[in-house]
Amino acid sequence: MASLDRAVIERKLGYLNRYVRDLSQHALLDDAGRRQAHYAIERLLQLLCEAASDIALQFLKAQGETLPASYREVFAALERVGGLPEPMARDLIAACGMRNVLTHLYDEIDLDRVVAAVEPAVALYRGFSGWCVGRLEG
C-alpha cells in the first residue's frame, strides 16, 4: 500500500478552496448577473469537480486501490473503501455529471441549471474539503 502524500492533497485542497471562494462570489449575484457570468461559473464547476476527483484519487492510491477511470467510479470507490458518506458521494457524482456536459457539450447547456448550481456546489465542495481535512487529521 502506498503512503498518503499529504503535500499533494494539501496543495490540491488549496486549489479546491480557492475555487469554492471564487464560486461563492457568484452567489452574491442575482439570476441575471449569474447568466452574464455563466462562462465563469461553468469553468469553476468544472475545476471543482476535477480538483475533488484528484484529491479522491490520492486517497484511493494511498489505499492501494486500482485507480478508477471515470469521475463516477472515483467517488463511488471512495465511498466504498474510503468512508466517503453516501449522500456526498452521490452529490459529487451528480456534480461531475454536470461537469461532463459542460466540458464535452454532450447536450445543450441549461443555463437555469448552471445558475441554480452555485449554492449547492459551494456547500458540496466545502463539505468535501472538510471531510478531506478530517481524513488528513484522523
3D architecture notes:
- The protein is an all-alpha fold.
- The protein has a single domain (6-137), classed as bsu32300-like (Four Helix Bundle (Hemerythrin (Met), subunit A), Up-down Bundle).
- The chain is 79% helix and 0% strand.
- Helix 3 packs across helix 4 and helix 4 packs antiparallel against helix 5.
- The chain is globular, with a radius of gyration of 15 Å.
- The two termini are 18 Å apart.
- The relative contact order is 0.17.
- The model has no long low-confidence stretch (mean pLDDT 91).
Topology:
Elements: H1 6-26, H2 31-36, H3 38-62, H4 71-82, H5 86-104, H6 111-116, H7 118-137
CATH class reads Mainly Alpha
Give a count of the beta strands, DSSP E runs of length 2 or more.
0
Under CATH, the topology is which?
Four Helix Bundle (Hemerythrin (Met), subunit A)
Order of helices and strands: HHHHHHH
Dominant shape: globular
Individual helix count: 7
> What integer value in Å does the Rg equal?
15 Å
